[in-house]
Amino acid sequence: MPAEPGRLRTLTIALLSIVLGLTAVGVIMVQSASQVVAISAGRHPLDGLLKQGAYAVLGIGLMFAISRVPTVALRRLSWLLLVVGFTLQALVYTPLGYEAGGNRNWLRLGPISMQPAEFMKVVLLVWVSAVLANKQRLLDRWVHVVVPILPVVAASMFVNVLGGDLGTLMVLAALVFGCLYFSRVRGRVLAGVAAIALLGIGAMTIIKPNRVVRILHFFEVDCLTAAEHAYAGCWQTLNGFWALANGGVLGVGVGNSTAKWHWLPEAQNDFVFAVVGEELGFVGAMAVIFAFVALAAVLIGLMTCCDSPFARSIIGGVTVWIAVQMMINISVVLGFVPVLGVPLPFISAGGTSLLSLLTATGVVLACVREAAAAPETADGSLSAARSATAGASPDTAAPSGG
């Protein structure tokens, strides 16, 4: 936390307040949405609270621990983190991996179950930002934007496609695009990268027949009028609509949802926003959306207070990551896009997702901490903290490749 009163301290307090508030709402809603399923499966009635609460405590501790790590250390570790991330993704296709919800993106290591793709979001955030910071003075040339970022990101996305996880693929693409955009990469280079990404996503989409069927079903069937599809492809969407409608303006109260009684599939995961709308009503649902909008505004405000290229890329990537993931999730619940299996940030059940988001917040806080400390040692030149993250010179950046 910046010690001196001012804009940076105010924004940091706002960031922590919103993140901790959304995490607390998530723990409550996961417990409410999963209680019936837990009891019917013979688990403890407070299973959702205990699990999600434990991940929240662990993630908050991790967030504050990482906020104390110098950003220069994070940049030095970025390549090692990239190797670890790819190794975990590859392990999904060994006997340690397993399929859930039609996607093979889960890994079981003893008693621990995790999604390497969620960990990879943080890895790519740090690694891409480190590469862009090292090449800051060379980013007007497209080759230094594309290499080595595009091949590495494409390889990670391809692993997700093999597992059938299109939602994570889209979030990863948006995250990297956010890093590039806020690193002030030229518009024509961004347009080229975006075109390549869209072509890649389109190609990777059509290689999975079940995904193509789901998309075609979305465009060809109106779930509100096609009664013959009510017990098939429209079941989850319709029950999400009914849950939101049942909530009205003020909701039926926390714990009183009827959709979670085995009517709404994945009520505590991808469709937790429907339970939020039913139990907290239109007011509560809009409050959650407003919290995400405020979080994006706070992150952008913090970005203006940080002058290092690494910090701008980190904060910009996190902003786009959270915003796009939130919009995809809520759009799915509202029926605007096909079901993609994307969790609502900080709120949906899932330890790996929550840990990755809180870890990314910790990296943002590390950038903010150094931005706050920099003026205290300024003597007319760059401070030690600022110079460590200001980016390499052209002579050293070009051969390093990040």
From TrEMBL:
The chain crosses the membrane at residues 12-33, 53-70, 77-96, 116-133, 142-160, 166-182, 189-207, 280-302, 314-340, 346-368. It catalyses: [GlcNAc-(1->4)-Mur2Ac(oyl-L-Ala-gamma-D-Glu-L-Lys-D-Ala-D-Ala)](n)-di-trans,octa-cis-undecaprenyl diphosphate + beta-D-GlcNAc-(1->4)-Mur2Ac(oyl-L-Ala-gamma-D-Glu-L-Lys-D-Ala-D-Ala)-di-trans,octa-cis-undecaprenyl diphosphate = [GlcNAc-(1->4)-Mur2Ac(oyl-L-Ala-gamma-D-Glu-L-Lys-D-Ala-D-Ala)](n+1)-di-trans,octa-cis-undecaprenyl diphosphate + di-trans,octa-cis-undecaprenyl diphosphate + H(+). It comes from the Bacteria. Keywords: Cell shape, Glycosyltransferase, Membrane, Peptidoglycan synthesis, Transferase, Transmembrane, Transmembrane helix. Coiled coil: none annotated. Residues 378-402 are annotated as: Disordered. It is found in: Membrane. Pfam families: FTSW_RODA_SPOVE. It is a multi-pass membrane protein. InterPro entries: FtsW/RodA. Its EC number is 2.4.99.28. Peptidoglycan polymerase that is essential for cell division. PANTHER family: CELL CYCLE PROTEIN, PEPTIDOGLYCAN GLYCOSYLTRANSFERASE FTSW-RELATED. Belongs to the SEDS family. FtsW subfamily. This is Probable peptidoglycan glycosyltransferase FtsW. The lineage of its organism: Bacteria, Bacillati, Actinomycetota, Actinomycetes, Micrococcales.
